[in-house]
C-alpha cells in the first residue's frame, strides 16, 4: 500500500513542526511539504501533489473558509482535513459545505486526526467524535451525503443569500442597511437574521461577528466595527 502524501498548512512554526513529527511517526504517512502562508498554499498543492492537505484553521492568517472554497474550486479532487478548537456542529457543517473532507478538534487524541486523514485520502467524510457525539445521526448523515455531491450542485449549509446577510451583519450593519444593500425589505432582512441565529446557534450580533470571523468570512479590517455592534 502506498503512503499517503501530506501537505501541512499552519501559520505557526512550532505547532507545525510538532504536527510534522507526529504524522511522520505513523506508518503509511509521509509529509511532502509545509506552508506557513495562505497565499502560498495553492502553489504548493500544485508542486507537491499531496493526497491530503492538513490545515490548522487561522482566519487571521487567511486559513479560513474563503481559502478552502477557492482551493476546492481549483482542485476538484482536493482532500483537506481542517483542525480547529471548535466543537459546534454548525461550525463543522459550514466547513464541510466549503469543501473540507475531514474535521478534527485540537483537543482530540491523535487517533482522530489519523483516521480523518485516512478517510479523506479515500474521498470519505470524517467528523471528529467530539462533534459527531453531539450531533444526531440523521443530521450527521445529511452533512455527509450533502458533501458527497460533486461540483457546484453540492448543497451548502448556508445559502449564498444567507452568507451575504451574515457578512453584512458581522460588519455591524443594521437590518435596514442590510435590506438597502441587498435590495430586500426590512422584514426579509430580519427573517434572514433570525434564520442565521438558529442555524449557527448564536444570539447576539457580536456572536454573529465572532462566528463569521472564526471561519474567515470577515477579516481584521472588520474587527472593531463587528465587535461593537449590538
Helix/strand layout:
Layout: E1 4-9, H1 13-24, E2 29-35, H2 41-48, E3 52-56, H3 65-74, E4 80-84, H4 89-98, E5 102-105, H5 110-121, E6 126-127, H6 129-132, H7 137-147, H8 160-170, H9 175-182, H10 186-200, H11 205-214, H12 223-228
Parallel strand pairs: 1-2, 1-3, 3-4, 4-5, 5-6
Helix pairs in contact: 8-9, 8-10, 8-11, 9-10
Under CATH, the topology of the largest domain is which? Rossmann fold
Kindly estimate the percentage of residues that lie in beta strands according to DSSP. Answer: 5-15%
Pattern of helices and strands:
EHEHEHEHEHEHHHHHHH
CATH class of the largest domain: Alpha Beta
- Rg over CA atoms, rounded to whole Å, is 18 Å
Which CATH architecture of the largest domain? 3-Layer(aba) Sandwich
Distance between the termini: 55 Å
Quaternary structure classification: single chain
Q: Your description of this structure?
A:
By secondary structure, this protein is α/β, with parallel strands linked by helices. The chain has two domains: 150 residues, Response regulator (Rossmann fold, 3-Layer(aba) Sandwich), CATH 3.40.50.2300; 69 residues, Orthogonal Bundle (Arc Repressor Mutant, subunit A), CATH 1.10.10.10. It has a six-stranded parallel β-sheet, with helices on both faces. It is elongated, with a radius of gyration of 18 Å. It starts with a strand and ends with a helix.
Please provide a brief summary of the model:
This protein has 230 residues and is α/β, with parallel strands linked by helices. The chain has 12 helices and 6 strands. The chain folds into 2 domains: 150 residues, Response regulator (Rossmann fold, 3-Layer(aba) Sandwich), CATH 3.40.50.2300; 69 residues, Winged helix-like DNA-binding domain superfamily/Winged helix DNA-binding domain (Arc Repressor Mutant, subunit A).
Amino acid at each position: 500500500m502506498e503512503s499517503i502524501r501530506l501537505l501541512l498548512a499552519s501559520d505557526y512554526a512550532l505547532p507545525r513542526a510538532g504536527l510534522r513529527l507526529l504524522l511522520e511517526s505513523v506508518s503509511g504517512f509521509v509529509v511532502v511539504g509545509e506552508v506557513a502562508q495562505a497565499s502560498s498554499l495553492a502553489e504548493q498543492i500544485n508542486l507537491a501533489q499531496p493526497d491530503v492537505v492538513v490545515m490548522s484553521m487561522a482566519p487571521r492568517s487567511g486559513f479560513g473558509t474563503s481559502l478552502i472554497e477557492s482551493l476546492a474550486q481549483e482542485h476538484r479532487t482536493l482532500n483537506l482535513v481542517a483542525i480547529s478548537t471548535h466543537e459546534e456542529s454548525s461550525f463543522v457543517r459550514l466547513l464541510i459545505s466549503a469543501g473540507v473532507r475531514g474535521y478534527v478538534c485540537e483537543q482530540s487524541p491523535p487517533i482522530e486526526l489519523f483516521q480523518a486523514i485516512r478517510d479523506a485520502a479515500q474521498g470519505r467524510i470524517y467528523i471528529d467524535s467530539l462533534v459527531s457525539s453531539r450531533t444526531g445521526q440523521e443530521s450527521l448523515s445529511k452533512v455527509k451525503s450533502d458533501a458527497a455531491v460533486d461540483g457546484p450542485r453540492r448543497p451548502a449549509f448556508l445559502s449564498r443569500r444567507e452568507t451575504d446577510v451574515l457578512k453584512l451583519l458581522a460588519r455591524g450593519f443594521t437590518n435596514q442597511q442590510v435590506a438597502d444593500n441587498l435590495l430586500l425589505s426590512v422584514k426579509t432582512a430580519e427573517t434572514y437574521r433570525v434564520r442565521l441565529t438558529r442555524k449557527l446557534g448564536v444570539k447576539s450580533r457580536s456572536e454573529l461577528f465572532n462566528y463569521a470571523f472564526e471561519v474567515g468570512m470577515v477579516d481584521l479590517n472588520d474587527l472593531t466595527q463587528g465587535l461593537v455592534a449590538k
